[in-house]
Amino acid sequence: MKVTLDDIKARESQHVLQTYRRQPVVFVRGQGSFLYDGEGREYLDLISGIGVTSLGHAHPGLAAVIADQASTLLHVSNLYYHPFQAEAAARLTQLSGLARAFFCNSGTEAVEACLKFSRRYWYTQGSPERQSFVAVEGAFAGRTMGALSVTSDPHYRDPFGTLIGPVTFVDPQKPETLAAAVNERTAAIIAEPIQGEGGIRPMSPAFAQAINDVCSRTGTLLIADEVQSGLGRTGHPFYAPVLGLRPDLVSVGKALGSGVPVGAALVSERVISTISPGDHGTTYGGNLLACRSAIFFLEQLIDKGLLDHVKTVGDHFERRLRALALQHPAIVEVRGVGLMRALQMASDAMPIVDEARSRGLLVNRTDEKVVRMLPPLTISAAEIDRAVDILGEVLGAVSASMPQAVHA
Ligand SMILES: Cc1ncc(COP(=O)(O)O)c(C=O)c1O
Fold this sequence. Notes:
By secondary structure, the protein is α/β, with parallel strands linked by helices.
């Protein structure tokens, strides 16, 4: 039975809690870097479910692993052992240099676990008053009460009253203010090595240095939120080490399951001895399906050369976007690393997103004036060329109505 956009919209508006502003398209199938709507129209997907479908759509190897696991055993609960959690954890700890992994189901839960483990650390150290956090203006960490507390956007926070705290937000352009924000009650600093929802803004070397200085002076823990920037997105396993950061805790999610929900909090040697059975848990966390998917993704990333591929096509993407910016004065800045890219526009980016979609290209707006692109890590250079060509046509079509940036 064919379902139309209008039918689905009508049913959703009646039955689904209206928390999302959806774009008018119904996707029914995917293949590699492409999505297909109910009419059979093809879309080149430069957003991959917001950085999630890292292996592209309908990856045959991942599909086989999922089918095999689904017909063997999906879930047993953390009351028991199964064969795959230790292997997924071993791969993540090897990749990150951290000591242990705690599995959960999303990036938000990974952040939440990191916040809890930070407080637990100080509680065990005999400093239970160290409960507060320092976060960064522009940060997004999720929507649960804890993760929301370290998310800076007042639109997300204000309707929900008192959050956990105290949390002090620091302007990333003012690294000299970080030291004063950290005090004897601070448990941890939490920061994204590259802010994702905040507009693809890599942390400056000066801010990274300020974090290292204050952490080594005060013992404050560092949580690197790598939910968006981690696991190959930048062409590096993680971006915190590229900045010279040495986090005590790292949150990951998104790319890890390539569409199967799985997240993890990675925990350093320093913190693990303070965590005891019963301190934290979740029913689904690290079940067989999630761990098989994560292992398959990590095999592709490291053993099958996907990380090197991201470096190569990421550089190509950057060259093409910089050339595009030279031709289109509506682009103020090109930002990002690897396959985590953005065009900073002079005005609202939504007309670009809409025009691109009508021409078969999916990109995303974030921070109002930013066109964000997080393609599958498997995207080819030819597909990137096609995407940038379409972006050029889109900018040509919408630029008459857009303010132009004045380039120095
Ligand atoms: C840096 C960062 N942390 C946490 C989250 C929350 O992850 P999730 O939506 O999977 O719960 C996101 C989601 O965009 C994110 O970008």
